[in-house]
Specification:
Length: about 325
Amino acid sequence: MVLRRAVLIVGVVVGAAAGCSKTSTGDGRSAPPCNDEPFSNEVCIAEGSFLMGHPTMPDGLPGHSPFSPVHKVTLPSFFIDVDPVSNGEYRACFEAGACPDECQRATSRCLGSFAESYSMLDPKLADYPMATATIDGAEAYCRWMGKRLPSEAEWERAARGPKSFDYPWGNSAPDCAALHCDLPSFDRDFPHTPGSYPVGMATADVSPEGVRGMLTTVRQLLREPPAVYTTAALTNPLRAAQPYEARATRGNLSFYGAIHGVYNGVSYPLPAWERSSHYTGGLRCARSDSPVVLHLERAVKLRQNLLASRKLRSLPRLPLSGGQP
């Protein structure tokens, strides 16, 4: 009872939120920043519209393109993490009893050579991005942080910026400034050396609003399964997930082993509109904006401290997301 009361002690102040300075929208209109205040590791993405998908490549090639047709998507303001979640951050959730560890146990169905060589329990990899989370684990971590996984539309908007760039840094294809080609691989089975790098390391992979590592770290699990695109304009789209259904994943350009991918025999740079689906991967969290200022980060940290001090091994699912989750 004490824990629940502590969690629900959230100061609510009606008024303008501090710290969220981005006011651009996808269609060129001016817009207010996020109403709520950002967490220390978040970026505010202002409400507005952007073009989702890609118009020319590989659209027009034989077969169905998962990247087209281009369609207009309108999103309310939201927050997204600046960086992907690190192994050390996820391990803290695991040790608090709030996150599962399905990809690290010997009985795991997802255990393989990569999980063996890239363990979140390895202290040398504490600053590297988490890459072996399951869907349940990714959702549990974001819930532990008072957040949720981003939708596909939210992820693409955050990666491409308000002008719908092909890449976070613009429309030019990736080079070693983005990929860190000089970094050695930690896994001999990696097909390409920039398989990963420590979270927060300076690269060219930065969006106009300051979101980092969207394409050049690990693939990132999202909130929903991938949907088939149509030309219809959409507002805050979210496809319901069925049990045991793979989730959309974005990013992980480096994991493909080359700067270019191939679709129906045609090579093209792997961009921010590239999409796939998996059951495991890395993650970053998002959070809906709130119509009022919620001092939510304080409540989340209080909750985590209480869990650690009491050594609780389970986490109640309390509604800690600002706005609708």
